[in-house]
Amino acid sequence: MHTHARLGVANPDLSQSVRAVSATAAAPQTTDGVLTALATGDSGLTEEEHARRARVFGANAIRAHRARIGPVVARQLRSPLLLLLAVTAAASFFLGERTDAVVIGVIVAMSVGLGTVNEFRAEKAAEALHDRIRHRVVVLRDGQARSIDLAELVPGDIVELRPGELVPADLRLLSTTGLQCDESVLTGESEPVRKSTDPVPEGTPVAELTSCALMGTVVAAGTGRGVVTATGGDTEFGRIAVGLARREPETEFQAGLRKFSMLLVRVAATLTIGIFVVNLMLHRPILDALMFSLAIAVGISPQLLPAVVSTSLAAGSRLLAQRKVLVKRLVCIEDLGDIEVLFTDKTGTLTEGRIEFMRTIAADAADGDVTELGLICTDGLIENGRLAGGDALDTALWAAPVAPLGAIEGYSRLATLPFDHRRRMVSVLADSPVRGRTIITKGAPEAVLACCENVPDSAARALDAEFAAGHRVVAVATRSVPGQTTLTTADETGLRLAGILVFLDPPKSSAREAISRLAALGIAVKVITGDHPTVAARVCEQLGLPAGGTLSGADLDRLTDAELTEALSTTTVFARIDPEQKARIVRAQRCLGVDVAYLGDGVNDALALHAADVGISVDAATDVAKDAADVVLLEKDLQVLADGVTQGRRVFANTMKYVLMGTSSNFGNMFSAAGASAFLPFLPMLPSQILLNNLLYDSSQLAIPTDNVDEEQLARPSRWDLRLIQRFMLVFGPISSVFDFATFGIMLWVFHAGEALFHTGWFVESLATQTLVLFVIRTHRTPFFRSHPSVALLTAALAAVGIGALLPVTPLAGSLGFQPLPGGFFVVLIGMILVYLALAEAAKHWFFRTAPAVPAARERRTDHRLRRRAARFITRTHPAMGTSVRPAQAFGP
């Protein structure tokens, strides 16, 4: 944050001017006075002056996301589990158990190292994603309009404002055309504030400023131009933001991990206390009993769960980025996989988005006159005979070869009523030598026709024919108003229909396949559009979207929330929908207990993006849409979105492999250790051996994020189900224990093992069985025959088993308390492994056959979703703020 005090030293004259203007924000002075105070000319700053001010004021940023190794290491060291291990290692060292101390120290170092490496990689991935989501702003430099990165703004820059854009800094307005700003982020008021250049009294509260546009607010309608008076942390928005907590509310994925961790804590606490009490009752040394109990607690905990999750998310983000999907928070990758209903706009998603002007159909004027009127009637900026900042339809009209651009040179626009989504029209007051003073209105046909008198029947028939063909249509109407100098919505009456403009936006060739792919993923696609119902329905029919009903905005207004919720199951197309209605539809769908995604790119989509479980936008979207979204697509294509959904489900599936396998195997081994300690004259395994076993096993599982996932696991969303995890643990844990106890019997009665040989035999057997059973648990299919693991996972698992088998014959064996095993043991071991895997395979098929069905409507996430939406703008999405993503912060026990 750059403070005025520091600036005063670097450049006292300029900083005093900035302080004077920005302190009152709406200083009662002329716009020329503001420009003079900021040492800015009408043509904006020069490049040299901008460079000088950039050195003084710094970047227009409140904070930026940067991956730093220090905070990552600090978060790893905050783990209570690691603190417990460190204390145990220190106690062992001072009490003479040097080997245990060294082993535990190595485990702590490797755990911290692996966690740090993987989380830092995840942070770097998040940083790369944020660097790819850029925000641009149009400024005046040396008299020329140019697009620059938002962070490059400095006080004194002259900025152009367009609908849908975020106000990039605190501005004193120089000119406005119907400008309205949504300031709810600062004031809480939902109604846009109309802006003007009229000065207001000094001391006016921020909420009542009309001559200023403040950073973080949204241009809801109209256009404007303003001079930057404050940037970064010196803005009103910045002063609020820097005082807020930076940690984001957790996602469902994080909440599931947290609940799972608490489950493990309860199980570990019960086992630890029970084992400690039993060992004391058997009169074993307190230190040995304590160390063994602590080792059991550590052994049942999947120590590398944060690393596995971070690796999965980081790998997922890289793959998604390659597929042109950018996820703002890594943990939102899993949210993508939960999608069950997708609401999407039509233009550019289901259609090519390359709108072409086809023809005009006149009501009672020459065709050329209708096109000419359409060119003049725009809320875009016309400079030097060219259109700047117009919408897609205006751009297509101006680019048409038949556009009579020369004919509009005689027109002068005196006033403009910008387009808004309630009126669905734009009007201009224009003057020309031929027509005189005229109101020209252009917009949705039904809205324009409602303002017209004596509409011919032929016009209505022409409209119906164009709609049925799937064409986009805009109506143009006029009214002569001699001598009028102002324009209000009350003037949009008594119009005469001039004709209609017909545009073509053909269906996208890849959309049909994408819709089929999404359907195969269990995702219902529904269309929300501002277009005519017949046009939208025709496009859906051409793309093979499953037939369903159509609701218009007018229909929606007549429905109660309960009736809307009931109608959702039979409705595929929502047409002529305004922004509030979009959000209402999304909220109603979420009330049915399904995860909802919304894909949109306009300012009118922001409310719906906030209301959805997963907000999705595109890189070419308006700033406000990109900032309201969780996910940004670099290409507006449903195929790209399908890739994102698949990757989200793959991340969750691989995480669950580790969870199910780790809890069942660890629980079984630790239960075996607890039982054996009750009747053996010695500990069944030394604490250091338990920890080493757990480290080798967990290290092999770091390859799980690379594993292949079966198609049926990707076909439907999966969610955390603690009851299933508990049931899995209670079924597969005892199976593991049966073979552990068989090993105990074989070691005692067949090989007549002493303490060291017993420890060695069980170490090798438990490591082999709990590692290799992954290949059974990782799939619902028959392993290796119908489901193949990744090469990395197969290699890592076999390497861990091999290292465990070789350790007893290495020079480290004595220090670790091992001794070489007889050859006959390995023959028995191979037989036990094969029987164990076969039994586990049979139990797996029985388990999933009898597992209760997951309820269709899961517990709603309303509370944390609302908290996340409320915090989103401040903590993450403003382009000048960046974020602080901590993908593994809330993970693990």
From TrEMBL:
<comment type="function">
    <text>Mediates magnesium influx to the cytosol.</text>
</comment>
<feature type="transmembrane region" description="Helical">
    <location>
        <begin position="789"/>
        <end position="809"/>
    </location>
</feature>
<keyword id="KW-1003">Cell membrane</keyword>
<protein>
    <recommendedName>
        <fullName>Magnesium-transporting ATPase, P-type 1</fullName>
        <ecNumber>7.2.2.14</ecNumber>
    </recommendedName>
</protein>
<dbReference type="Pfam" id="PF00690">
    <property type="entry name" value="Cation_ATPase_N"/>
</dbReference>
<dbReference type="InterPro" id="IPR006415">
    <property type="entry name" value="P-type_ATPase_IIIB"/>
</dbReference>
<dbReference type="InterPro" id="IPR044492">
    <property type="entry name" value="P_typ_ATPase_HD_dom"/>
</dbReference>
<keyword id="KW-0472">Membrane</keyword>
<keyword id="KW-0547">Nucleotide-binding</keyword>
<dbReference type="InterPro" id="IPR001757">
    <property type="entry name" value="P_typ_ATPase"/>
</dbReference>
<dbReference type="GO" id="GO:0005524">
    <property type="term" value="F:ATP binding"/>
</dbReference>
<feature type="transmembrane region" description="Helical">
    <location>
        <begin position="77"/>
        <end position="95"/>
    </location>
</feature>
<dbReference type="InterPro" id="IPR006068">
    <property type="entry name" value="ATPase_P-typ_cation-transptr_C"/>
</dbReference>
<keyword id="KW-0067">ATP-binding</keyword>
<feature type="transmembrane region" description="Helical">
    <location>
        <begin position="821"/>
        <end position="839"/>
    </location>
</feature>
<dbReference type="InterPro" id="IPR023299">
    <property type="entry name" value="ATPase_P-typ_cyto_dom_N"/>
</dbReference>
<dbReference type="GO" id="GO:0005886">
    <property type="term" value="C:plasma membrane"/>
</dbReference>
<feature type="transmembrane region" description="Helical">
    <location>
        <begin position="757"/>
        <end position="777"/>
    </location>
</feature>
<dbReference type="InterPro" id="IPR008250">
    <property type="entry name" value="ATPase_P-typ_transduc_dom_A_sf"/>
</dbReference>
<keyword id="KW-0460">Magnesium</keyword>
<dbReference type="Pfam" id="PF00689">
    <property type="entry name" value="Cation_ATPase_C"/>
</dbReference>
<feature type="transmembrane region" description="Helical">
    <location>
        <begin position="289"/>
        <end position="315"/>
    </location>
</feature>
<dbReference type="InterPro" id="IPR004014">
    <property type="entry name" value="ATPase_P-typ_cation-transptr_N"/>
</dbReference>
<dbReference type="Pfam" id="PF00122">
    <property type="entry name" value="E1-E2_ATPase"/>
</dbReference>
<keyword id="KW-1133">Transmembrane helix</keyword>
<feature type="transmembrane region" description="Helical">
    <location>
        <begin position="728"/>
        <end position="751"/>
    </location>
</feature>
<keyword id="KW-0597">Phosphoprotein</keyword>
<dbReference type="GO" id="GO:0015444">
    <property type="term" value="F:P-type magnesium transporter activity"/>
</dbReference>
<feature type="domain" description="Cation-transporting P-type ATPase N-terminal">
    <location>
        <begin position="25"/>
        <end position="97"/>
    </location>
</feature>
<dbReference type="InterPro" id="IPR059000">
    <property type="entry name" value="ATPase_P-type_domA"/>
</dbReference>
<dbReference type="InterPro" id="IPR023298">
    <property type="entry name" value="ATPase_P-typ_TM_dom_sf"/>
</dbReference>
<feature type="transmembrane region" description="Helical">
    <location>
        <begin position="263"/>
        <end position="283"/>
    </location>
</feature>
<keyword id="KW-0812">Transmembrane</keyword>
<dbReference type="GO" id="GO:0016887">
    <property type="term" value="F:ATP hydrolysis activity"/>
</dbReference>
<keyword id="KW-0997">Cell inner membrane</keyword>
<keyword id="KW-1278">Translocase</keyword>
<feature type="transmembrane region" description="Helical">
    <location>
        <begin position="101"/>
        <end position="120"/>
    </location>
</feature>
<dbReference type="Pfam" id="PF00702">
    <property type="entry name" value="Hydrolase"/>
</dbReference>
<dbReference type="InterPro" id="IPR036412">
    <property type="entry name" value="HAD-like_sf"/>
</dbReference>
<dbReference type="InterPro" id="IPR023214">
    <property type="entry name" value="HAD_sf"/>
</dbReference>
<comment type="similarity">
    <text>Belongs to the cation transport ATPase (P-type) (TC 3.A.3) family. Type IIIB subfamily.</text>
</comment>
<dbReference type="InterPro" id="IPR018303">
    <property type="entry name" value="ATPase_P-typ_P_site"/>
</dbReference>
